[in-house]
Amino acid sequence: xxxxxxxxxxAPHIGQGALISNSPALHFHGSAAIAGTFxxxxxxxxxxxxxxxxxxxxxGVGKTTVLRLLAGLGDHIDHVGSIKxxxxxxxxxxxxxxxxxxxxxxxxxxxxxxxxxxxxxxDAVDGDRAEKLIEQVGLTAHRHKKPNALSGGQRQxxxxxxxxxxxxxxxxxxxxxxxxxxxxxxxxxxxAARLFAxxxxxxxxxDPGEAARLGDVIFVMNATGxxxxxxxxxxxxxxxxxxDVLACQGQLLRLLRETP
Amino acid sequence: MMxxxxxxxxxxxxxxxxxxxxxxxxxxxxxxxxxxxxxxxxAGNLVLIAHHASVxxxxxxxxxxxxxxxxxxxxxxxxxxPIARVVVRPMMVLSQAxxxxxxxxxxxLWLGYxxxxxxxxxxxxxxxxxxxxxxxxxxQTPRGMLDQAKVMQARPWQIMRHIRIPAAIPALASGLRLxxxxxxxxxxxxEWVGASxxxxxxxxxxxxxxxxxxMFAALIVLAVLTLxxxxxxxxxxxYVVRRQQA
Lengths: 260, 246
Prior knowledge:
heterodimer
């Protein structure tokens, strides 16, 4: 599954309705502090419309704080600045989030976990759409299983389908693949790249290889701020062993290590 | 099978020690009757004891049920509403400063000698543990699940229904396990204060008539029934929790 973006765009995907065609760009500006403890200096982050923007950084530089602010989960964060969408419309109801922990409900089976969003809003459940998504993430045989009966990779597939089920144009990914083993991680990256095609994606990661494979736009975040890095010229998702991807990965790692 | 053998073994051991104690100390039967005498009293008064046991168990079960329902409802409203937390929670904690037993005479005064004062005693005794265990569970929903719900623009009541309550079921189960042990205490206290039926009443009656072996028989039936109740509630809770997550 090393499908390029161009290839995958031809296949019809669920969740790519009218909402997706106007995936907006995002602009984040400002500094952040939590309970008086300073997290980062004012910075400007541009998240490109309908593309993968990777925010790479070591633990503790505040990349998750940026993501939480974008997700509207920043109640406890003192954010001085602004978050804007390119179409000027509000964020509310246009974002979905996929975190490192899958946050599946252990008491719900695969299907019910995928449709939890509708249930939580009190909306009608689109069962057909959920069934198709289960098929797309390859979990048809596990439809009635509960999370405890699934492997880590399968659980993240459920989380992926749940994210797609929301049908939101903006997708925030907080290291969703970092707890998976290398083989499953590569598969999940490919699946996500295919299924999230056309959406505005912001991926937080500490894995230079992941950023080099997936980033249409790549930023390295460290104590000195945000640094833009030119991604490899090939379209995402890139093969992990292409020379320019490996070179980019090396460059990213160097940037991570050189700066404090 | 092993379990049954173990229970029988432990019972035999206790009975032997009891018998040994009676033989060695030579305690008179009106202080500590031998297991054989108690067994005979039990066999000779089976219908009588069964009748009083059924009354006590009815009080316990109804009290347990009502207390659990009331506790669950209180915990949910406390968890859902910050105002309720500010107003009701201190009242609940304060109410625990009052020994519930002290209310038994008042309840008997108000409600008479029937089932209700005992049911309410059982209810009062389990209300706090159930409420507090379930409330703690409701307040400890994993952060990530709530974040996910917030991004999904969930409604507060739907979060309660679809996430917080199911996530707190194991906590409720531990509250109910405790309640199953506490509820008989409430019913017996109620019966001691004023009753015409029930194992607590039978114990006092037997004591008054110097039928110590009958008193012990009633005590043992009470202990066995309490153990059975605890075991059933425990089984049921474990089953529900296991079913819920697998």
